[in-house]
Amino acid sequence: MNGAPKLVTAVAIAAAVVVCPGVATAAPPPGACGNPAPASPAVTELPWAQKTLDARSVHEHATGAGVVVAVVDSGVDADHPQLAGKVLRGQDFFLVGDLPGGFDCVSHGTGVASIIAARPVSGIGFAGLAPDATILPVRVSESDSTDGAAEGIDPEALARGIWFAADHGAEVINLSVAGELDNPFVRDAIRHAVDLDVVVVAAVGNGQEGTAPGPVTYPAGYDGVIGVGAVDMTGTRLDSSQIGPQVDVVAPGGGVLCAARAGGHQYRDGTSFAAPFVSATAALVRSAWPGMSAREVTQRILATTTPAPGDKAAYGTGMVNPYRALTDGLVSAAPAALPAVRHPVPDAEQVRVSAWWAESVSDARLFAVLTVAVAVLGAGAAVVLIRGRRSRWQPRRAVVPPAAPARDELPEEMFLVPPPPADR
């Protein structure tokens, strides 16, 4: 992040895929949106993130029913077909006046909310990971970026939004914002939410350059906050996903599908859209175990991740795994100490018998070797005795053949073929 540190939305490049036109019509208050983003086309196929996280199997165990998730962002389009009836009134802390948070001019907050709680619709593959959760929209900005530029958010507005969410029934708060500024108002608001037993999830940001850890980003860097990095469909960290101690876990954030304001869907990149997968997982866990504390929910999410290919500063504990978060059996007790090694006392009688057998086997082997040696020597002696008697014990000498007489002349010529006629 260049220039003076400031809180920014953790956003990245978005691109829509045309399948069929959107059907919803957003209704922001008059004059609230100066240049609202148009509707996007709908996308029918099942997205890779929902396939990877096995959303259909997850929903056999929990759907997020009864859990309120606050989306502190650019607002949420409450008119979207997959969000209609699921979005509370909320509050707008960006514009002056008593305005609801249930509208969105730029689609950022709508996309985040849909990844959490979009309901299934016939003919559409996309749905939220916790489709029965309820969204509390808290509007703190009108910021969305399609070129990676930093867009500022008023930290006081962000802090007021977090306080509002914590005080109005949110059990999970999603913060798809990140920046290098450790603001005291935001820090106090996070502490307030944690004290009220709220699970707070935040994007780690998209300002990474190279592979060396950069400055700690906030609010992901605060105690009690789950910091979320982004990976693509291969499980590899996005180059822009920031590295550092604030990264607790990673989630799909490259080319993920989400809803857009005024209807339809968009493909988005960045940690902004990875964080809601973790917020949805927290909603699923809180739905399955309503009595579980926020600290226990966090521990379960981090303990059940899928191991990642890189180091902890880039991937945290690994890829969020909602199925394991719902089904793994965990224990809270510390591992039991291993008992001291006790060497058994040998039985004296058994030791005596074993020694007797060992000695007997050794003696038997020696006897067998000696027996074979004696047999070989005896056989050799017998052969010598028999041959000696036959020869009357006279030494045997080799018969030398007579020497051939020396030739003074060469032998006659030998022909292998008949001689010439003159010689016949």
Automatic annotation (TrEMBL):
Coiled coil: none
Gene3D superfamilies assigned to the protein according to its UniProt record, in alphabetical order: Peptidase S8/S53 domain (3.40.50.200)
Top-level taxon: Bacteria
Membrane topology: Single-pass membrane protein
UniProt-annotated location(s): Cell membrane
Catalytic residues (UniProt): D73, H108, S272
Ranges annotated as spanning the membrane: 366-386
GO MF terms, alphabetically ordered: serine-type endopeptidase activity
Pfam families referenced in this protein's UniProt entry, alphabetically: Peptidase_S8
Gene Ontology biological-process annotations: proteolysis
UniProt keyword list: Cell membrane, Hydrolase, Membrane, Protease, Serine protease, Signal, Transmembrane, Transmembrane helix
A GO CC annotation given for this chain: plasma membrane
PANTHER family xref list: CEREVISIN-RELATED, PEPTIDASE S8
Stated family: Belongs to the peptidase S8 family.
Protein name in UniProt: Type VII secretion-associated serine protease mycosin
